[in-house]
Design goal:
The protein is α+β, with helices and mostly antiparallel strands. The chain contains nine helices and nine strands.
């Protein structure tokens, strides 16, 4: 299929070319409702055959100048990110996928195919490691109410204002120390469970602001779990979490392996037909 002159080829992921992948891509739509296509490197490509899940997007929005403008538009970014994620998750239900970064584009389909052929061995090796695995996230949050000092009762009423203030500060400090101690123990328990079940782990920066809400996020890890161990992993985390007070342990997933996808080769000049991934 040729690429219209006013569009670019947007790639979502790489995956082994199977009947299940073809079925999953049939009727699937991505950014701006564009149909999801499977681009292959051609009949002479190395084995195993791989495909790029791709679509066509307007050059005005995804060219260099358009992206610079849109990357300041949070509403646009959220819409594109959601569509990007939905395509990858839909395919991941039926195939092993290697997610690519949002806004990875090529000048046309032929140049995307050429890049797939050039990086075939890198992609194939990584996909082999990800086969029959799923990503799960584990986050630990501090309960914002648990660090509040207990009511001091009548004792505070008999103290001077200065002494009462110091008592409240000391009680608050002690409560915070107790919660952080629980969080450290919870993190150690999660780490031990991950060591037992996970093939790989990635430690992400903790979340803040609107991403974490009123609770303080103190751990934000991703684990690559063999599918056979997914439920035992979840159950072990849930069981361990019950032992800790003042903290909340949250498991998210299953996800496509975003945290474990090897980044594409260093981006080069898109005008020359090579990948550009802002």
């Amino acid at each position: 299929m040729s690429t219209p002159d006013d569009t670019l080829t947007y790639v979502y992921a790489v995956a082994p070319l199977t009947t299940d992948l073809r079925d999953a891509a049939t009727g699937l739509r991505g950014i701006y409702g564009s149909p999801v296509l499977l681009l292959t490197a051609g009949p002479d490509a190395a084995q195993p055959p791989l495909a790029l899940a791709a679509g066509h997007v307007p050059h005005r929005d995804f060219g260099e100048h358009g992206l610079k403008h849109h990357f300041e538009d949070l509403e646009w970014l959220e819409s594109v990110a959601r569509a990007h994620h939905d395509v990858i998750q839909s395919l991941a239900l039926h195939a092993t996928v290697l997610p690519l970064r949002m806004a990875t584009v090529y000048q046309d389909d032929d140049r995307a195919r050429r890049a797939l052929a050039e990086q075939h061995n890198v992609f194939a090796d990584r996909l082999a490691q990800l086969a029959d695995h799923t990503e799960f996230g584990v986050k630990i949050y501090l309960d914002p109410t648990s660090a509040a000092p207990p009511e001091s009762g009548n004792a505070a009423g008999t103290a001077t204002p200065g002494k009462a203030y110091l008592q409240r500060r000391r009680a608050q400090h002690n409560a915070q120390e107790a919660v952080y101690s629980q969080a450290q123990k919870a993190a150690a328990a999660v780490d031990a469970i991950g060591s037992r079940y996970a093939s790989q782990r990635v430690r992400h920066p903790t979340q803040s602001g609107s991403l974490s809400g009123p609770a303080e996020n103190v751990l934000n890890d991703a684990y690559l779990i063999p599918d056979a161990y997914a439920e035992p992993f979840r159950a072990a985390i849930a069981e361990a979490a019950r032992a800790f007070h003042g903290v909340r342990v949250e498991v998210t997933g299953p996800w496509a392996p975003y945290s474990f996808a090897m980044p594409p080769a260093e981006p080069r000049n898109a005008a020359a037909g090579e990948e550009r991934a802002p």
